[in-house]
Design a protein that fits this description.
Helices cover about 25% and strands about 25% of the residues. It is of the alpha+beta class and about 525 residues long.
């Protein structure tokens, strides 16, 4: 078949627009504020082997790991037309249990699927020992219900028994059911749009250009790697602790550049730990894809081709390749950020003018759950809070944004107070929290919430002990701070904690600033 660069660009945008429309469908039909307001979800398209062809501009930690979930769904057994497989198992390509993936095959004039569509959404509660399913856990069994690859939809019909089983294990069943149905509609949208693409161009042409998109992304990635000086570059950084002990946890990488190939070796990282900051292999892989894609200026499809020139080495049973049944609730949100920090730190030694200082390095996870006295129903609030971005050569770090492995919005104050028994008493930029430098780091955020009912709270955060690093003589970003105000008394809390709060108590989260770049 003759290759056309014009058609390649057409199909890149066609696939991208389909994934984006899937996301719009999911967000607009969802029930929970976490998906509807924060957009904590991701959508992508895969070939018949489970290789990602194109993704929407959603959440990096979801998208880079999702191919392993799709492949796990494929390996679990044949998916007929109209079927959809659900799973959240972190040890089968998942991240943590609240992130639930739904995979659907796409058939066209064939007895075999030609594509797959999939989406992943963070559900605000999937059971477990604390509301929000982000506990200070020591085992994955404490974190919620573990779903292996199972058919939630079979030949177009929802398996009501499986749905009921799941809903019976969560705190807010109506919200979960609504979000599941939104995920189903997102996949239906993707299937419909891909069908229209096949009808217009024909199966052979669509499949040809899907394959060529992977090849093109590979060629561009290799050309970018070739511009990096050959050599070996190392960097290490630390997680504050695992929330159970106070020991810092080392994450180390050694990057070897050989022509147009990279070897990324994390085998110097610490062993997996008792607490929930363990990251599974799929998370580390997603961080690698994110960082590599960030080095590429060209407008290419983010897909499996970007990873072809890269060899990833991890030590099984380590903090970056945890083994079952290690707890992983915070590995997705916190450890992923530190993996990115060490990757960028290593690249800063090879291409210093292209690499920013460390961003806030945490997602500042907060879950609050209890019974809303206004309705008599359980509620479960989950949010990640932005902070400062690291500065780079020629550019100040952005203030009060999500960075790196997350790409969610905030929950607007109006939506938060409408849906939960809270009063937001302060929400502002944390001035002077960015590191000094020729280009200063971005500032963090201050968010203060007053409880209008008794509730249980869990906070999983980082950079309360080790500051976001600077580069080229700049100053580090300011560390974050967690405060509980009860009975008029302030208590500075650790980075990871769980406690019961009373009506009228307040929680204050002050997020870190980004590192500065260059001597001030």
């Amino acid at each position: 078949m003759n290759f056309s660069p014009v058609l390649l660009e057409v199909f890149k945008n066609k696939f991208s627009s389909i994934a984006e429309e899937m996301g719009v469908t999911l967000i607009r039909t969802s029930f929970s504020p976490n998906i509807k307001e924060r957009k904590d979800c991701s959508c992508a398209i895969f070939d018949n082997m489970g290789n990602m062809v194109e993704q929407a501009a959603h959440i990096p930690v979801h998208l880079g790991s999702m191919p392993l979930s799709v492949k796990a769904a494929i390996e679990a057994g044949n998916m007929d037309e109209g079927d959809m497989v659900i799973l959240n198992d972190p040890y089968r390509g998942g991240t943590h249990l609240p992130d639930i993936t739904l995979v659907a095959p796409v058939y066209f004039e064939s007895s075999e699927s030609v594509f797959y569509v999939a989406n992943r959404a963070h559900h605000s509660d999937v059971g477990g020992m604390s509301p929000g399913s982000m506990p200070l856990s020591t085992s994955i069994f404490q974190e919620g219900i573990i779903i292996p690859p199972l058919k939630l939809v079979e030949r177009g019909e929802i398996d009501r028994k499986l749905m009921e089983f799941f809903l019976n294990n969560v705190r807010i069943r109506e919200e979960r059911e609504g979000d599941f149905e939104a995920q189903i509609m997102a996949n239906i949208t993707g299937i419909k749009r891909l069908g229209e693409l096949f009808n217009k161009y024909g199966k052979d042409i669509v499949l040809f250009y899907a394959s060529e998109l992977l090849n093109y992304s590979e060629r561009i990635t290799r050309s970018v790697i070739e511009e990096i000086p050959d050599g070996t570059y190392s960097f290490e950084d630390y997680l504050d602790n695992d929330g159970i002990s106070d020991d810092p946890i080392r994450i180390s990488v050694q990057i070897t550049v050989e022509g147009d190939q990279l070897i990324m070796d994390f085998s110097g990282s610490d062993p997996q730990v008792t607490g929930s900051v363990n990251a599974v292999y799929s998370i580390t892989l997603s961080c690698v894809l994110y960082v590599i894609r960030s080095l590429i200026d060209a407008d290419i499809a983010t897909n499996a081709g970007c990873l072809r020139p890269i060899e990833l080495i991890t030590e099984k049973g380590s903090i970056v390749d945890a083994q079952y049944p290690a707890p992983v609730a915070a590995g997705n949100v916190e450890t992923s950020q530190r993996i990115v920090d060490v990757l960028l730190g290593a690249f800063s030694k090879a291409i210093p003018d292209k690499i920013p200082a460390a961003s806030q390095g945490t997602m500042n996870n907060i879950t609050i759950g209890g019974v809303d006295s206004r309705t008599g129903r359980h509620f479960s609030y989950y949010e990640t809070i932005g902070g400062g971005m690291g500065a780079s050569k020629g550019r100040k770090g952005a203030d009060a944004v999500h960075s790196h492995m997350t790409n969610t919005m905030n929950t607007p104050v109006e939506a938060l107070e409408y849906n939960y028994p809270f009063l937001v008493t302060e929400y502002k930029v944390r001035k002077n929290s960015g590191g000094q430098g020729r280009y200063s780091g971005g500032n963090g955020i201050v968010r203060r919430i007053k409880l209008l009912d008794d509730a249980q709270i869990v906070v999983l955060s980082e950079r309360r002990r080790f500051s976001p690093y600077s580069l080229e003589g700049g100053g580090p970003g300011k560390k974050g701070k967690n405060i509980v105000i009860s009975g008029g008394k302030e208590r500075v809390m650790p980075g990871k904690f769980s406690c019961a709060l009373k009506k009228g108590d307040e929680i204050v989260i002050k997020t870190p600033g980004g590192g500065g770049w260059g001597t001030p």
